[in-house]
Amino acid sequence: MTHLEAFLDQAPVLKQTPLHALHLSLGAKMVPFAGYDMPVQYPLGVMKEHLHTRAAAGLFDVSHMGQVVVKAISGKLEDAALALERLVPVDILGLKPGRQRYGFFTGDNGGILDDLMIANRADHLFVVVNAACKDQDVARMKANMAGCDVTLLGDRALLALQGPKAEEVFANLWPGASEMKFMDVRDASILGADCIISRSGYSGEDGFEISVPADKAEELAKALLAHPECEPIGLGARDSLRLEAGLCLYGNDIDTTTSPVEASLEWAMQKVRRPGGERAGGYPGANRVAEDFATGPVRRRVGLKPEGKAPVRAHAVLYAEDSPESPIGEVTSGTFGPSVEGPVAMGYVPASLSEPGSRVFAEVRGKYLPLTVTALPFIKPTYKR
Description:
Layout: H1 3-10, H2 20-25, E1 29-33, E2 36-41, H3 46-55, E3 57-61, E4 66-72, H4 77-85, E5 100-106, E6 112-120, E7 125-129, H5 134-144, E8 148-152, E9 156-162, H6 166-171, E10 185-190, E11 193-198, E12 207-213, H7 217-225, E13 230-232, H8 235-244, H9 286-295, E14 299-306, E15 317-319, E16 327-337, E17 342-350, E18 359-364, E19 367-374
Parallel strand pairs: 3-13
Antiparallel strand pairs: 1-2, 3-9, 4-7, 4-8, 5-6, 6-7, 9-12, 10-11, 11-12, 14-17, 14-19, 15-16, 15-18, 16-17, 18-19
Helix pairs in contact: 3-8
EC number: 2.1.2.10
Family: Belongs to the GcvT family.
Protein name: aminomethyltransferase
């Protein structure tokens, strides 16, 4: 066996989504991502894919993410909601049927273990978690949600249709699309497939997420792509779109060391779950989160606008002054923002420097480049509220 053969023999086998063959037929460049072979770009290229999504409609394969059904053995949704509230500091009990909201699992130190979307499906909860964390998330729910059945669905794909013309494209297949509002969740029969539709988005644009049986995923994707306003979009543009929208990527902008308040995600904690609320606490790390609310966090996630055209990438060290004597934080995400025609970034700075207009410096190849702390997002979202 050669060294190459030995390496390949030991290399982990990448999983494939139900749309893998379609990606290859469309000329996608594939890369490993969260254990899957995923399209990073198509022949159109990352820049044009990004701008097309902002102008029309882009179709993303997000089937690698975990789709989880949580159902109380009692049959009461209230029991499932209260059980999940023992793991997430958001209001699940008050979530109305046919609606979803953003949330996150917290650890004993108040850090974020994963972020997720939670939908009230009338008799059960439908939870979508990140691909790299889904096995741990399901194990955590099974271990800590007594009285609930927790099932990771293995026979469904997930598509995301994003952009100002997403409704037009989707309504061509399903007229009910135009009746949905931001964060609504509905059932739909599309091309004979039983689908679960939500209306939100990770791009800052209006859009839909479509959970579809795996054996119907390619047919549905092809039908959406047949519309002249819809193009396939890869991970490259997905990343620049979400960064312009000021949205976090788990493992980069939030992780087990960042509390929700440090991460500027306290907006996702409803009043009843905040300190002093009627259902405050009761989740892992609640004491640390309460302390951050009471005294303010030591650091905050902020938007960062570099001067000039050169992007400042993740892991660049931040300084209060243009010298190596004063490191204060780190860039967590950074790229060129095609829609704003300039570099954009996010990172953590001391709370004292977190106000918009504050000035910091990033070390890039031995030089100290100035950045301005900026309010997020960098673009105006177009969600249909």
